[in-house]
From TrEMBL:
Residues 7-295 form the Prephenate/arogenate dehydrogenase domain. GO terms for molecular function: NAD+ binding; prephenate dehydrogenase (NAD+) activity; prephenate dehydrogenase (NADP+) activity. GO terms for biological process: tyrosine biosynthetic process. This is prephenate dehydrogenase. It catalyses: prephenate + NAD(+) = 3-(4-hydroxyphenyl)pyruvate + CO2 + NADH. The lineage of its organism: Bacteria, Pseudomonadati, Pseudomonadota, Alphaproteobacteria, Rhodobacterales. It comes from Pseudooceanicola albus. Its EC number is 1.3.1.12. Gene3D superfamilies: 6-phosphogluconate dehydrogenase C-terminal like domain, NAD(P)-binding Rossmann-like Domain. Keywords: Amino-acid biosynthesis, Aromatic amino acid biosynthesis, NAD, Oxidoreductase, Tyrosine biosynthesis. Pathway: Amino-acid biosynthesis; L-tyrosine biosynthesis; (4-hydroxyphenyl)pyruvate from prephenate (NAD(+) route): step 1/1. InterPro entries: 6-PGluconate_DH-like_C_sf (IPR008927), NAD(P)-bd_dom_sf (IPR036291), PDH_C (IPR046825), PDH_N (IPR046826), Preph/Arog_dehydrog (IPR050812), Prephen_DH (IPR003099).
């Protein structure tokens, strides 16, 4: 990869995503990594585990030499962090982020971006329910998408450099505009997370009735919901407050479909239920046949036995 030349990358916010970037960059070689986190405990942990070449005590020190600065904080903190780092960016540096929402981040960060710096938002579609500097690992982005959202006036060579950086971490890169990104993610990530939070909340409300049976007899579906519902509360609060419009649009559609299924169950309309489930099964199989589910261990790729 060539990052004019491969120099220093500053990571601001040293949690799951930043630590995964740091380990992945180390695996790829070449890059020098500096880092800063608002939490002294996180900075201390980052130093102890050798996450960065240099963990700095101020955002200014972390970004001063950086060719690429990546904001890895919750979406609601992006504006504050941009305000803190932007005055200290090197002329010609690239500023980027990894936030799960793009429209609100662009709105919050852009006013602080100085002339001569390209701000190129990005979003790796990879993560876990864990957070913090010890949660990251080098393979997190392997074969995952990273969506980049070039803003107006971005120099093509800066976009190419950011693309090459993410590719060096193992990701496949695509470009998308912010509004489209936020709608797509509302469907594929944000609303599913909200549904998981709700389902686990419902089970918890019923715990006096079910005692611990819900956990004891959890089939895979509910287990997956509990994993997702264990995700970081600050991060997800910010995601929903920042992607309000698209999430509400998708939730509205979801509720309508849910009511239709509820009515079919009440009315004993098996035909409706069967047709619906047949349609959704075809969607899952289409994803697997297109080779787009890298998590499917045995189903799909050669999994004809289960078709
Ligand atoms: N967790 C996930 O699965 C994914 C998260 N993202 C996005 O990546 C970003 C970071 O998420 P994680 O790494 O999971 O979070 P995390 O909770 O593991 O780490 C965030 C870090 O930011 C620090 N921080 C908060 N405010 C700060 C400030 N003002 N200045 C400096 N540091 C500050 C916190 O102390 C914390 O260490 C979020 O915007 C999230 O939407 C993107 C893809 C996946
Ligand atoms: O852990 C999971 O299942 C995830 O969905 C991880 C994730 C969370 C947030 C993102 O913006 C992207 C990926």
């Amino acid at each position: 990869m060539s990052l004019r030349p491969v120099g220093t990358v500053a990571l601001i916010g040293l949690g799951l995503i930043a630590s995964s970037i740091a380990w992945s960059a180390k695996r790829a070689g070449q890059t020098r990594i500096t880092g800063y986190d608002i939490s002294p405990e996180v900075r201390e942990t980052a130093r102890r585990i050798g996450l960065c070449d240099q963990v700095c005590d101020t955002p200014a020190d972390a970004v001063a030499e950086a060719d690429l600065v990546i904001l890895c904080v919750p979406v609601g903190a992006m504006g504050r962090v941009a305000e803190a780092v932007c005055p200290y960016l090197k002329p010609g540096a690239i500023l980027s982020d990894v936030g799960s929402v793009k429209g609100s981040v662009i709105e919050a960060v852009t006013p602080f971006v100085p002339a001569g710096v390209d701000f190129i938002p990005a979003h790796p579609l990879a993560g876990t329910e864990h957070s913090g500097p010890e949660a990251g690992f080098a393979g997190l982005f392997d074969n995952r998408w990273c969506l980049i959202v070039p803003t107006q006036g971005t120099r093509p060579e800066s976009t190419a450099a950011l693309r090459a950086f993410w590719e060096s971490l193992g990701a496949n890169v695509d470009e998308m505009d912010a509004q489209h990104h936020d709608l797509v993610l509302a469907v594929t990530s944000h609303t599913p997370h909200l549904i998981a939070y709700t389902m686990v909340g419902v089970a918890d409300d019923l715990r006096r009735v079910t005692d611990s049976e819900v956990i004891k007899y959890s089939a895979a579906g509910f287990r997956d919901f509990t994993r997702i519902a264990a995700s970081d509360p600050t991060m997800w609060r910010d995601v929903f407050l920042s992607n309000k419009e698209a999430t509400l649009e998708i939730l509205g559609r979801f509720t309508e479909e849910l009511f239709a299924l509820q009515r079919a169950i009440r009315q004993g309309d098996g035909e409706h239920l069967h047709a619906y489930f047949t349609r959704t099964r075809a969607i899952r199989r289409g994803i697997i046949e297109a080779g787009q589910d890298t998590d499917a261990p045995d189903f799909g790729r050669g999994g004809a036995a289960r078709k």
